[in-house]
Design goal:
Layout (H helix, E strand, L loop, with lengths): L1 E10 L4 E3 H5 L6 H8 L3 E3 L6 H16 L8 E5 L10 H9 L5 E5 L5 H14 L5 E9 L9 H4 L4 E11 L5 E9 L7 E3 L18 E3 L1 H23 L6 E6 L4 H11 L10 H4 L6 H11 L8 E8 L3 E8 L1
The structure holds oxa(dethia)-CoA.
């Protein structure tokens, strides 16, 4: 049984915040942000949060796939910025869509989340447990950044992406293989403290935590681990990198993507980018990019594509898909 992506969708809130806008609230500049990260602007959700964006992306993916909500068996949402500790984002989206025959739950792997969710979906589909699934990557990091910390607040944006998948018994299309990794010993380099930190029988209600990051540590980890993981994935699949049309990489920093391209000895033409328009939307970057490629007609039947992500945990993962 193969897991085939039959539709994609994405959504970003309408409010555009440029680098110049940020230069008015913290000591930064358009020039610093562009040259260090490749980011020019990001979208920020001013009101509704992750569920709203996830549901909008899901609706678009369902429309693209020609699948009705009641046909979905399972919804897996990857997010670390759910609107609530509970219910899960997946259950909320299920309610909005009216996907009454589905089961829904979330996975948490930060910026690697979409790969982890799609890997989980693929494993469930391969066993024959489910036939039609919806995988979502959605994050609302603007509500978790400290808007006075220039070292992090310029990096992130809000958005969501989704893919509808279907079990197919025959054919070459679909997920070929995937590899995931995590290293909890490095958990402290990228954190955001949970909001449920009140203490038993005391009045103490700590302030919510913000994103805290050792940027250079994350940078070094990403440019080492991602190429290693992609190499290992392709070796397992018996696929040469030249056979891969696109490496759809987590959009965290243009320079990280360039460095990964150099290490894999591939041209940046193979690494589509949209970080300039969205910034780092965490679990949403990969499915948003995939949706853009799909809608631009850049993915043809038979194309091999590698999806690869990295992020807090530390986590990383890569997946080889035949379109
Ligand atoms: O999805 C995964 C999550 N995160 C990432 O992938 C992030 C990975 N890391 C990075 O992308 C980069 O490390 C950053 C973009 C975060 C930072 O770039 P960098 O080239 O590593 O800069 P740096 O941290 O070494 O800082 C260089 C200078 C410092 O000033 P001094 O000490 O040299 O005087 C910073 O204080 O840049 C300063 N700086 C800024 N200046 C203007 C830091 N942030 C800003 C800013 N505007 N926004």
């Amino acid at each position: 049984m193969k897991t085939v992506i039959i539709g994609t969708g994405s959504f970003a809130p309408p409010r555009v915040v440029t680098n110049d806008d940020l230069a008015e609230i913290v000591d930064t500049s358009d020039e610093w942000i562009r040259t260090r990260t490749g980011i020019v602007q990001r979208r920020i959700s001013e009101g509704p949060g992750t569920t709203w964006m996830a549901a909008e992306a899901a609706k678009r993916a369902l429309e693209d796939a020609g699948v009705r909500p009641e046909e979905i068996d399972i919804i897996i949402a990857a997010t670390t910025t759910a609107d609530y500790c509970f219910p899960s984002t997946a259950c909320e989206v299920q309610g909005i869509l009216g996907a009454g025959n589905a089961v829904g739950y979330d996975v948490s792997a930060a910026c690697s989340g979409f790969i982890f969710a799609l890997h989980t979906m693929d494993a469930l589909i391969k066993t024959g447990t489910y036939g039609t699934g919806l995988v979502i990557g959605a994050d609302n990091l603007s509500k978790t950044v400290d808007w006075s910390d220039r070292s992090t607040c310029v990096l992130f944006g809000d958005g969501a992406g989704a893919a509808v998948v279907k079990a197919c018994e025959s054919g070459d299309r679909g997920v070929i293989c995937s590899q995931l990794g995590s290293d909890g010993s490095k958990a402290s380099v990228l954190t955001c403290q949970a909001r449920s930190m009140g203490n038993f029988l005391t009045e103490s209600r700590p302030e919510p935590g913000y994103i805290a990051m050792e940027g250079q540590e994350v940078f070094k980890f990403a440019v080492k681990k991602v190429p290693e993981c992609v190499d290992s994935l392709l070796r397992d699949a018996g696929t040469d990198i030249d056979e891969v049309k696109y490496l759809v990489l987590h959009q965290a920093n243009y320079r990280i993507c360039e460095s990964i391209a150099r290490r894999l000895k591939i041209s940046m033409d193979k690494i589509p980018m949209n970080i300039d328009r969205y910034g780092n939307t965490s679990g949403a970057t990969i499915p948003i990019l995939l949706d853009e490629l799909n809608r631009q007609g850049k993915l043809c039947r038979g194309d091999k594509v590698v999806l690869a992500g990295f992020g807090a945990g530390l986590t990383w993962g890569a997946m080889l898909v035949q379109w």
